[in-house]
Amino acid sequence: MIPLVKLDAIDSTNDFLKRWLQERPLEAALAVSTNHQKQGKGQRGNHWISEPSKNLALSVFIPLSGVSASSQFFLNKCVSVCVIEVLESLKIPELAIKWPNDILSCQKKIGGILIETSIKKNYLEYAIVGIGLNVNQIVFDELPKAGSLASVTNNEFQVDSICQHILNRIEAKFPIHLLSESSELHQAYLSHLFKYQKTAQFIDSEGNEFNATLVGVAPTGQLQLQTQAGLKNFLMKEITLIW
Q1: Which domain holds residue 236?
Q2: Is the domain of 182 the same as that of 213?
């Protein structure tokens, strides 16, 4: 079982673990959760706004040895699928993964994943996996696309129980000291990928809007789109899905 440190309030669970590592190196997995994350972080430098005591803010330190740096997106796929499987067990409806790692329900963003890694000589030393999940929060001021488990089901949930289920799933899914890509995991990720094999609208980094069909995700994590000009791969900062 992955040990869990519970905190009342903290700036960011990912940052807390990074400070911990500076003071006392870790050799085994360790998780940190908090009732109130004051400066939660998301992808593209966005902030994750969370009402105290109503949501899950969790970070997990995972030591890695002999894992190629090119396997970084494996972590995203693995954690995303773990979270989806836990939510499926709770009967959360219409679940999807919006590339690269937002969690949706009924086309509302209910969660997000932020993975930070340390790389040495082209190998991953460790990963800090941050998971934010809106659980019992109902009001999201000026965030029309945000939702929570409570808002999509009209039920309340036990945050601590969900936290432990996710930790158990991560530990079971990933032998923590040995990562190996698998077609089963890739298919599980694709089967939940938002807009997979559908035509959608995108905007590139220069502000140009275009339609394309989402046909997959490359092993490196690039989004694969079938455009009028042919098949193209895009990095996270190069493209945004309009939804």
Answers
A1: 199-242
A2: no
